[in-house]
Amino acid sequence: AVVSTQSGHYGRDIRLGDYAGKLCVIVDLVDQKHLLVDGPTTGVPRTVVRINQVSITDIKIDIPRGCKSKKVRVESEKAEVTSKFQNSGLFKKAEAKRSKAAMDDFGRFKARVAKVSRNRKIRSTVRKLKKSS
Amino acid sequence: CKQQHDQAVVSTQSGHYGRDPTEDVKRPLTNRRKVKPTKLRSSIKPGTVLILLAGAHRGKRVIFLKQLPSGLLLVTGPYKINGVPLRRVDQAYVIATSTVVEIPAIANDKLTDAMFKRKAKPTKNEREMFIENTSEEPKISAERIALQKEVDAVVVPAVKKVEMLPSYLRSKFTLTKGQFPHQLKF
């Protein structure tokens, strides 16, 4: 199983389905391929999800197995799960993808110009170094 | 058939019992349609940057000035920036971007459809047809050039205020690999 038998209750990211991109907590294991999941602070209802619909982060909350939503909410707020997640690489990558897709035509132009000028500088310095060596 | 529906049969006889078809007059049906200019897309406002999709300037980004009574959009490059003059453009052949430049309202009476009307070529009689026209009138009237300068004197400073906007207007819109218009946000 992806999650160990001692059921580390990690906060994790739902990737597919209605709650894509949202964070929730593993509350219990159903079987080898299913997890009971709850995200009271992020709007994810207490549901059973397939393990492959989800990617597990290394944020952990101290909750007993199968505990109620109220306790999950209290503990996740105490552990400041959302702020920890926002500092993680997974969130930052997802944010970058989202902001790229939301760029308008002018934004895309500016990004292209920035990329081109940056690559030019890099290439010219590399060439200079090659010449001097 | 259509012939029958476009015309109303009007009887010239009044108060007669039974009409004589040979005396009936065919008149076209009254047309009460009022032609309105095309509805302007909500995304198009004065100062909006538009991408032209057809014509000689396809791919170029221009500034929208106003909608003319004919329904066409009046745009300008500005001319000094990308070579697009004061031009009429159809809304259907344009992508409106979300970039809007703050330009003061241009209230110029001369900016109408009449400005774009082509001058009728003088008809030549049989003898003159074989004589070449030695004096060619300049292709662009001095009037147009003056008007262009007037409008651009207002638009260009406003464009220069925004960082990178002049070079943006100078560049052309293209699709690269992996870009699909229905997925792009403009």
List the helices and strands and how they pair.
The complex is a heterodimer of chains A (133) and B (186).
Chain A: E1 10-14, E2 23-31, E3 34-39, E4 44-50, E5 54-60, H1 69-78, H2 81-86, H3 89-101, H4 105-132
Antiparallel strand pairs in A: 1-2, 1-5, 2-3, 3-4
Chain B: H1 2-6, E1 7-10, E2 25-28, E3 48-52, E4 61-67, E5 73-76, H2 79-82, E6 87-89, E7 94-100, H3 142-161, H4 165-170
Antiparallel strand pairs in B: 1-2, 3-4, 3-7, 4-5, 5-6
Strand content of chain B: 15-25%
Number of continuous helical runs of chain B:
4
Q: Kindly state the number of beta strands of chain B.
A: 7
**If strands are numbered along the chain, what order do they take across the biggest sheet of chain A?**
4-3-2-1-5
Number of strands of chain A: 5
What is the residue-averaged pLDDT of chain B? 84
Q: What general form of chain A does the structure show? A: elongated
Helical content of chain A stands at: 40-55%
